[in-house]
Design brief:
heterodimer, A: alpha+beta, 3-stranded antiparallel sheet, 8 strands, 41% strand, B: mainly alpha, two-stranded antiparallel sheet, 19 helices, 2 strands
């Protein structure tokens, strides 16, 4: 009897764990997730956001610091898709998101800034 | 009472999870890995994700070249390595949680940078887990000497009557929950090692002492706990002590190797690049023990029971009497001598949080004596202790909501917010 109860407990725990993992593979809330942004729209050295996977491309605007230019790299799901120098002027960045198929609902866009400034280590401003 | 004892640990864990969820849902704190939590954490992304203990890759990747000033992580001029004022111990203990978070991050396609959502959750839940495990071990230690009711009272007072619950929740990524866990382990292994110094216990003693060094170097003074347990027999145990010391040295070796690589010296003050000084001849005692801004007994008055209880420790528990006194006095001197004797921002004084397990023993002795007192004295004592715990808990919530300043609290500040609901 004890063995049966233990077996049932193990099966239930495994089922719950597997369900949680399945849900976490492609959660809907990722679309609203932002990482690495200060409250005022500046990034740190690295920032990420998610875009819908069914769009052919996404665009967003970036601008850097007014005292110096900095190298910005843009990655899509970890693959480099653009690299440029950013200054204080706003520029539009277009990322082709539909070129490689994915089974997920969202694609991850990562922005790496080679240089930051100030006590908060600010990078660039981003308008998504 | 046995049921209350069995339920206490899981209840604290659940309460901690609820509190952490509420803190971050309501935006009372920015994110778990912040302030000192950054410098304890950076070893993990640097070593696990970037394959180097130099810390430069995380500085480049996360901060665009240099760590924020408040972390105190500065570049050593001759070697270009970054010198972290906080050692690697917390990161070592947090490694399993970090690895789980990393695997889940890859699974969910979140940014695998060591700082995104799952790493943050893992860091704060990991701190809570170690803190609660410390309470479980402390419970085992107390149960050897006191009745269940006394043990429950001491655990409740230690958890909620001091700033410990704050460091299980609001600031769980700091070192205090991990250090509390290790100090509880040290009490536990001290008793066992002195009853019979088997090789396994000797190795465990060395592991715990080495881990304490890795979490905070000044915690080497806690070797006074096993040393003063039965000081007259130390010489007869010299072989085991040497073996434990060797194990502790092996555990400490990675940290010493990092210092060697960073500075060229095996032993160096990790604060040597900061304007950090010690004022050993004029320590600040009142401000860290009895009065504002950070008095230990001011913010956690229930700890006065620990002071009284030192003289009430009986039987086998008496073996901890002199180590409690010596560690507390030396720690007071060290903390009061530190240039920033407030220890930056904190609820109460966090310089004593790590040794709360040691103070819990005399506290339990005081509670035990109170249990045997006449009914009116017992009732008055219970009322006082309950009021002290409730006040500490209430003020912790005030601190979370920004009513109590992070540091430099004045009498004017305090009188304005006293018992004001956030």
């Amino acid at each position: 009897m004890a063995l049966t109860r233990r077996a049932i407990t193990i099966v239930v725990v495994l089922l719950i764990g597997a369900s949680a993992l399945w849900w976490l593979r492609d959660p809907a809330w990722l679309g609203d997730y932002r990482h690495g942004f200060h409250g005022d729209g500046w990034t740190g050295g690295r920032a990420s956001f998610f875009v819908p996977a069914d769009h052919a491309s996404v665009t967003f605007d970036v601008a850097g610091h007014d005292q110096f230019t900095m190298q910005v790299s843009v990655y899509l799901d970890g693959r480099l898709v653009d690299r440029f120098s950013a200054d204080a002027n706003w520029r539009t960045v277009t990322v082709p998101t539909g070129q490689v198929a994915t089974s997920r609902r969202h694609r991850r866009v990562d922005i790496h800034v080679a240089r930051t400034w100030g006590p908060d280590r600010k990078g660039i401003r981003v308008r998504i | 009472m046995r049921l209350a004892l069995r339920l206490f640990i899981p209840l604290v864990f659940c309460a901690g999870l609820v509190a952490q969820g509420d803190i971050y849902r309501r935006g009372l704190a920015e994110q778990p890995i912040r302030s000192d939590g950054i410098s304890y954490h950076v070893y993990l992304p640097s070593i696990v994700l970037h394959g180097s203990p130099r810390l430069w890759a995380t500085a480049d990747d996360q901060y665009g070249g240099a760590y924020p000033e408040h972390t105190g992580i500065l570049r050593w001029t001759n070697t270009s390595w970054w010198l972290n004022p906080h050692p690697i111990g917390v990161a070592v203990l947090m490694l399993p949680f970090f690895l789980i978070a990393h695997a889940l991050t890859l699974w969910s396609n979140l940014p695998p940078d060591g700082f995104s959502l799952y790493y943050q959750v893992a860091a704060t839940v990991g701190g809570l887990t170690y803190g609660v495990a410390g309470l479980a071990i402390l419970s085992r230690v107390l149960q050897r000497h006191f009745a269940d009711g006394v043990v429950v009272a001491a655990l409740v007072a230690t958890t909620f009557g001091t700033n410990y619950f704050h460091y299980l929740t609001f600031d769980a990524t700091f070192s205090h929950a991990c250090a509390f866990f290790l100090v509880a382990c040290l009490l536990w292994i001290t008793e066992r090692w002195w009853s019979s110094p088997t090789p396994a216990r000797t190795i465990t003693l060395g592991l715990v002492v080495g881990a304490l060094f890795l979490v905070r170097h000044s915690h080497l003074l806690l070797i006074l706990i096993p040393a003063l347990y039965r000081p007259s027999d130390l010489w007869t145990r010299r072989a085991s002590i040497s073996a434990a010391g060797l194990v502790a040295l092996l555990v400490a070796l990675p940290q010493l190797a990092i210092y060697k690589a960073v500075t060229g010296a095996w032993i160096v003050s990790p604060y040597s690049l900061l304007p950090a000084t010690m004022t050993f001849w004029s320590p600040e005692i009142a401000g860290i023990l009895v009065t504002l801004p950070k008095g230990l007994f001011f913010w956690s008055p229930v700890l006065l029971a620990s002071v009284a209880g030192v003289f009430l420790l009986r039987d086998q528990a008496r073996a901890f009497r002199w180590s409690s006194v010596a560690v507390f006095l030396l720690l007071t001197w060290l903390v009061g001598s530190w240039y920033d004797w407030q220890f930056g921002g904190s609820y109460g004084h966090r310089g004593f949080t790590d040794v709360l397990p040691l103070l819990a023993l005399p506290m339990a002795a005081a509670f035990d004596r109170l249990r045997q007192a006449s009914r009116p004295i017992h009732a008055a004592g219970v009322a006082l202790i309950s009021a002290a715990v409730a006040l500490s808990l209430f003020q912790m919530v005030q601190y979370w909501n920004g009513l109590i300043p992070f540091q430099n609290t004045t009498w004017s500040d305090y009188s304005e917010i006293f018992l004001r609901w956030p």
